[in-house]
Amino acid sequence: MAEILVLYYSRYGNTAAMARQVSHGIESVAGCTARLRTVPPVSAVCEATASDIPDTGPPYATHEDLKACAGLAMGSPARFGNMAAPLKYFLDGTGDLWLSGAMIGKPAAVFTSSGSLHGGQETALQSMMLPLLHHGMLLLGLPYSEPGLFATTSGGTPYGASHVAGADNNKELSHVEKDLCFALGKRLAGIAAKLYKCS
Ligand SMILES: Cc1cc2nc3c(=O)[nH]c(=O)nc-3n(C[C@H](O)[C@H](O)[C@H](O)COP(=O)(O)O)c2cc1C
């Protein structure tokens, strides 16, 4: 089985909902499974620390999850046109994996949720791509053969899947946004499965 890591941060649940759709896409590919993992919020040294085990949702990601995966789907809410600090903090701690080259040659794809339509989804997606490129990963987007890229009136970009959550973070994923999350997971898993078989 080629296991694809779906790694995300989500404060209000929108990116988490996307992660689940991406996972469905991954699991639609024969021989592929999705491993859902999240990261804890960042706490300054003067603040309280949280438990190693989250109260709800999937476990926190470890470096072992990254080492073991055949591919990576990574998602974050847009924060000032960037990825959210908790995900960046987790990635900033992966110097050991960078040094060992553990992620080189593995396929990766990114997804984001934003409050507004033109609030920086593309830059947030690209901000997640940068560290993955430094890790030597192979970045995948969504091709325009996906009809949703033309049909969408909310999220969905060639750089990765996206969702417009609205000012109150309460907009559900549209059908098109769901389809594009699914398509991204399926595409990632399809490539990962081929690479996995050959390695
Ligand atoms: C500090 C902060 C910065 C944000 N920056 C942006 C932004 O640049 N563009 C945007 O459209 N939404 C922005 N938002 C809204 C978030 O993207 C939105 O809350 C998020 O998509 C919800 O995802 P979640 O439910 O997974 O937490 C920001 C929210 C916060 C708290």
Give an overview in words.
Strand 4 (about 105-115), helix 5 and strand 5 form a beta-alpha-beta unit. Strands 1, 2, 3, 4, 5 and 6 form a 6-stranded parallel beta sheet that branches. This protein has helices at about 15-25, 65-70, 85-90, 95-100, 120-135, 150, 175-199; strands at about 1-10, 30-40, 70-75, 105-115, 140, 160-165. The two termini are about 15 Å apart. It is globular, with a radius of gyration of 16 Å. The protein is an alpha/beta fold. The protein binds flavin mononucleotide. The site of flavin mononucleotide has 19 residues, from helix 1 and strand 4.
Which key phrases capture this entry?
199 residues; binds flavin mononucleotide; six-stranded parallel β-sheet
Could you say which overall geometry the principal axes of the C-alpha atoms support?
globular
Number of helices: 7
Count of DSSP strands: 6
Sheet with the most strands, sense and barrel status: 6 strands, parallel
Round the mean pLDDT to the nearest integer and report it: 96
Name the helix and strand elements from N-terminus to C-terminus, one letter apiece. EHEHEHHEHEHEH
The ligands bound in this entry are: flavin mononucleotide
Unreliably modeled segments: none
Structural class: alpha/beta
Helix content: 25-40%
Secondary-structure map with pairings?
Layout: E1 2-8, H1 14-27, E2 32-38, H2 63-68, E3 71-77, H3 85-92, H4 95-100, E4 107-114, H5 121-134, E5 138-139, H6 148-151, E6 161-164, H7 175-198
Parallel strand pairs: 1-2, 1-3, 3-4, 4-5, 4-6
